[in-house]
Amino acid sequence: MRQYFILFIFGLLTTFSSCRTDFDTVASSGNLKFSRDTVYLDTVFKNIGSGTYQLKVYNTSKDDISIPTIQLKNGLNSKYRMTVDGMSGNNGKIFNKVTLLAKDSLYIFIETTADITDADPTDFLYTDQIQFDSGANLQEVALVTLIQDAVFLYPKQNANGTKEKITIDNKPVDGFYLDENDPVNGNELLFTNQKPYVIYGFAGVPENKTVSFQAGARVFFHANSGLYVDNKASLQISGAVSATGKLENEVIFEGDRLESLYDNIPGQWNSVILASGSKNHSINHLTLKNAITGLSIKSPDNTTIQIKNTQIYNCAEYGILAQNAHINGENIVINYAGLAGLSCVYGGNYVFTHCTFNNNWQNTSHFAVSLSNTLAGMSPVSNDLVQATFNNCIIYGSSTNEFNLNKSTNAAFVYQLNNCLLKFNSSTTNPDYQFKTDALHYNQIILNENPKFYNVSQNKFNIDNTSAAFAKGNQSYNIPQDIIGKTRTSPPDLGAYQSAVFAK
After folding, report:
1. Which positions ≥6 away from 415 have C-beta within 8 Å?
2. What is the pLDDT of residue 380?
3. Is there a contact between 484 and 454 (Cβ–Cβ < 8 Å)?
4. Are residues 164 and 176 in contact, defined by beta-carbon separation less than 8 angstroms?
5. d(CA 348, CA 370)
6. How many C-beta atoms lie closer than 10 Å to residue 496's C-beta?
């Protein structure tokens, strides 16, 4: 009998508990509060799903309430979709009789996948509203998304279901070769500023072909994707000075996650790889961000690569990784790299003038600049560093020592720093780091003085006249204009930026 009595009591409690909402809730009176009145879902590319955004809904009353409907104004035709407190409702569009307890809240998560044809043709905005209840109790929260049209480039699907591949470093990777006579996109070797480009996998430049990027071109790389310039192929990036902060004439390479959360997340895509034997490269006014390695330059032929007015930020490993390359760099800025901003390995021939190599990566086991004439796995292991010259440069960052030399005596190791501000804050008897007494390698070095950059965390490396780099350059190395086209004074400032009074 005792067991039956317990079961009877449990049944009553279960019945009352399951029915409590029906008895205790009251109808919503239209007095809900919201964490925001408009949810902006940032910018998305056509037919590519957005990130997930949240809206919090509050019941500030003393009563448990029932909201008759939570729905998208465009109903089942809406390009938005929601979950309400973990429920998917009717295709994520319509929810009925949603309970919200007194002094409690619920979460709504919103996503969208829309085409450019769904947006307003005048501003490319796609909009809708989340409606709570109806009639006199109707409350609405606006949804706004900017839809971008784009050219999508990706590996083809083979008949057996596998993806098209290309070979990089003797390994097959998902990728494809750009076609100058593609039946859909036309000349894929010419990137214009008419539409942004979205790349999946590695876009390869075939032998004896040149890929060109016009001023204002925008390229967005999906995860694990990149640009591969093959043997005997060439890269020409022809950006120009911009008149506004929108960088309208800059060529920009970055990841394809457009939400503001991803603005400065390293490692979102792979790299721009200039393969062994590639040639005739020229890079001007490029901004590259959020890669694993920004520029990976692998023993091109003996032609000199011109890299000018270029910014590289937030790379998980290297900003520039050069292997036995020939580079002439002017007005380059690099910041935030997990291993090194600039790493020149296995020798080569380098001249960098008016560059700002800074590294504020979160750990201290990094360098702004690292030079080496060796590389494990190569035969021979050592190779001549014919020249590594730095003129009117800044080499700085958050680590104790931002300059590193890895020298093998089995090959030449020629380097020189002229009129540079350098951070190396350790006392050492190593003859390679005698910045004040070694005139063969170091001339007019400013050691461990703060250049007072405008805002390192925002990658703004402008200086003013209080900087230790102000007017400390040598006029004989002067590049007449800085990275943003401003005329340098005499004597010039160190680094990529001509000094100016900071805006307040």
Report:
1. 371, 385, 387, 388, 389, 405, 441
2. 92
3. no
4. yes
5. 13
6. 28
Residue 463 and residue 457 in contact, taking contact as beta carbons nearer than 8 Å: no
Distances (CA, A) of 30 to 69, 132, 252, 408: 12, 8, 47, 76
pLDDT of 54 higher than 70: yes
Among 179, 298, 292, 308, which residue's Cα sits nearest to residue 225? 292
Q: Are 120 and 144 a contacting pair, CB within 8 Å?
A: no
Instruction: Summarize the confidence of residues 471-484 as an average pLDDT.
Output: 97
Tens digit of pLDDT for each residue in 136-150? 999 999 999 999 999
Contact 339, 318 (CB under 8 A): yes
In 3D space, the residue among 329, 260, 318 whose CA is nearest the CA of residue 288 turns out to be 318
Query: d(Cα 255, Cα 270) in Å, to the nearest integer?
Result: 9
The SS3 call for residue 336 is strand
Asked whether the beta carbons of 237 and 251 are under 8 A apart, the reply is yes
Whether the CB-CB separation of 450 and 444 falls below 8 Å is answered with no
pLDDT digits (tens, 9 = 90+) for 196-211: 999 999 999 999 999 9
CA distances (Å), 88 to each of 71, 77, 92, in order?
A: 11, 16, 5
Q: How far is Cα 118 from Cα 108, in angstroms, rounded to an integer?
A: 23
What does the alpha-carbon distance between residue 437 and residue 429 come to, in Å, rounded to a whole number? 12
- Do 217 and 247 touch, CB atoms closer than 8 A? no
Cβ-in-10-Å burial (0-12, 13-18, 19+) of 489 comes to: middle
State the sign of the Cα–Cα–Cα–Cα dihedral 41, 44, 47, 51: negative
Distance CA 334, CA 336 (A): 7
| Residue 351, strand partner residues | 328, 389
Tokens standing for 244? 């506004």
Token output for 494: 């160190």
Tokens of 119: 């947006």
* Backbone torsions φ then ψ of 235, nearest 5 degrees: -120, 125
**3-state per-residue secondary structure call for 440-504:** CCEECCEECCCCCCCEHHHCECCCCCCCCCCCCCCHHHCCCECCCCCECCCCCCCCCCCCCCCCC
The DSSP bridge partners found for residue 219 are 197, 253
